[in-house]
Write a structure and sequence with these properties.
The structure holds 2 protein chains of 2 kinds.
Chain A lengths: L3 E3 L2 E5 L4 E7 L6 E7 L5 E8 L4 E4 L2 E6 L4 E6 L8 E8 L5 E3 L3 E6 L1
Parallel strand pairs in A: 2-11
Antiparallel strand pairs in A: 1-3, 3-8, 4-5, 4-9, 6-7, 7-8, 9-10, 9-11
Chain B lengths: L3 E4 L2 E4 L5 E7 L5 E8 L3 E10 L2 E4 L7 E2 L9 E3 L8 E11 L2 E7 L3 E5 L1
Parallel strand pairs in B: 2-11
Antiparallel strand pairs in B: 1-3, 3-8, 4-5, 4-9, 5-6, 7-8, 9-10, 9-11
The chains are: A mainly beta, B mainly beta.
Chain lengths: 110, 115
């Protein structure tokens, strides 16, 4: 079945860039998403990319998609302490289901 | 304010005692879904509903029931909870139109402990 994988932890210094990576197996993915989960809260959609795009930029966020390698990344420029959270990658294929990754916990230290 | 609400937010119960977690959305969304979040496993879908009276199993439906009698409500029912259902549960809703599923809005979560 479909699978989405992420590394579990990432630690960066405030002001540096963060890059969170995700790989997926479903070659029929149509949309790929990045969600952010702050402590004690639900998931909030950060951004998404259509499978026919290879890059999307939204202020400090840059999403890169390598469809050939089934690799998605989220780059956060000028990372701030408020960016500390768990980031989930998710993909949607031809079905109506979202498949989520395990989440990457981003820790930003001063 | 557009939102998804869940109740209760926290629940501790004993094995076998039936419980219901409610979910309600005020955005007139067609699509609603339940997920459970466990450490190292991410979010796994339990059940989803494309519209009133239409429900389908997700990846981990065993031990759960749902109903969709009204568009705004999608309760999750555990007829006989067991300790392996201890988890953090999220309800989500989304607009669904012309075969396209739009952004999912998540509730704040319900932390369930079954002893």
């Amino acid at each position: 079945g479909e699978d989405v994988e992420q590394s579990l932890f990432l630690s960066v210094r405030e002001g540096d860039s963060s890059v969170i990576n995700c790989t997926y197996t479903d070659s029929s993915s149509t949309y790929l998403y990045w969600y952010k989960q702050e402590p004690g809260a639900g998931l909030q959609l950060l951004t998404y990319i259509f499978s026919n795009m290879d890059m999307k930029q939204d202020q400090r966020l840059t999403v890169l998609l390598n469809k050939k390698d089934k690799h998605l990344s989220l780059r956060i420029a000028d990372t701030q302490t408020g960016d500390s959270a768990i980031y989930f990658c998710a993909e949607r294929g031809n079905t109506d289901k979202l498949i989520f990754g395990t989440g990457t916990r981003l820790q930003v230290f001063p | 304010e557009a939102q998804v609400t869940q109740n209760p937010r926290y629940l501790i119960t004993v094995t076998g005692k039936k419980l219901t977690v409610t979910c309600s959305q005020n955005m007139n969304h067609e699509y609603m879904s339940w997920y459970r979040q466990d450490p190292g496993l991410g979010l796994r879908q339990i059940y989803y509903s494309m519209n009133v009276e239409v429900t389908d199993k997700g990846d981990v439906p065993e031990g759960y029931k749902v109903s969709r009698k009204e568009k705004r409500n999608f309760p999750l029912i555990l007829e006989s909870p067991s300790p392996n259902q201890t988890s953090l549960y999220f309800c989500a809703s989304s607009l669904y139109s012309s075969g396209t599923l739009y952004e999912q809005y998540f509730g704040p979560g319900t932390r369930l402990t079954v002893t």
